[in-house]
Input
Amino acid sequence: MISKADSAKIRILEILAMTGEMTGENIKAFFSSGEYVRKTITALKNESLIRKSSEKGKPVYRLTSKGRIKLKEVLPDVFEPLLEGRKTMNKIRDDDRRIERRNKLIEVLLILHRADVKIFPDEKVLLSNSSLIHRTDNTDTTDFEKNTQPEFYTAIEIKSLIPDYKTANGSRALGVLLSHGTIYIIYTTDIGDLIWRKETEKNFRETTRLTLARGVYGKDNGTYLLVLGEKEKAAHSIINRYKSRTVGKIYPSDDLPHMIFALKDSDKDATLRIITQNDNFIERLEAKLNHGLIEDPMFPYFAGKPKGTEGEYDAHVFLFDLCAVAAALDVCKNKGMKVNLFCFDYQKPYFESMIKDEIVKERLTVISYTEEEGRESAYE
Output
């Protein structure tokens, strides 16, 4: 049995294996006791399992070859494939672009860890039992499906598990969140500056849908793109590029739908908390609101047309669907249509602040619910 002290050591070795290198402060953020982590780091250094290095003058910690061997000895099923070969997860490159990507991965790992998502490799079901990816009987139940806690797989972990992901090389995705039968491909951007190649991201999403959604769950319950941002300004920048096809910049697209946005700060935005809970209340709420609506295949982002109306649509953006919001602004301004935008109360001021055009102000109505009201309506 692994002692508490050894368990903490393994955890630190794991997080360094995933990220390549981290500052002491970053490592401490993943644990409840900073002083205990400091002592554990010192012990790991004394055992030559990690070493202190420097990134642009900033002190960081990295695994040593002895540290990698230790992980493969303690968790062979997980780390033998991850730390071997040319595309090892622990290979460190120090160009600016890769440093930025590494820092964003650390940030996302911490956000998800605090949201009670499994991030450590030894916790993840697929890394210790990759056969679950290749199920063929849709009626089967597996240990993975019974698992109630969401799991996040980094891009390197996913590509090590599934050879088909070679068709999506170059994707800017940081990894994939598997949450209660639904899949979220995670990106992060601060001011809408994410380097974006739409065809590459389409390939990544399609490969994810075919291999993970169908392979693990036996069906596609939904494969979304989840963009995490520091401020709402990032979402505004993305929405403003709707149909612009700006080269190298992320934009909502008709052929890459289901792109949702969430603030990194869960105290300001409930999206991440909602999608990692296993209560499906958003689906139930939208089903209630859909009652009596007439679907229109010409506008798949919208829930449908209220009966007895012409040129009026309802759109549900409780999870801040960037494509739906962008399409709503577009049709109100350019096609003379009316849209009722249903959202949460904390989202309403931001959506209203985006409406600058007087014509759009007349045609777009923002209708908000508190989360409590939404839950009551969903389950009544």
Remarks:
- Residues 93-278 form one domain.
- The longest strand covers residues 182-188.
- The CA atoms of residues 201 and 351 lie 27 Å apart.
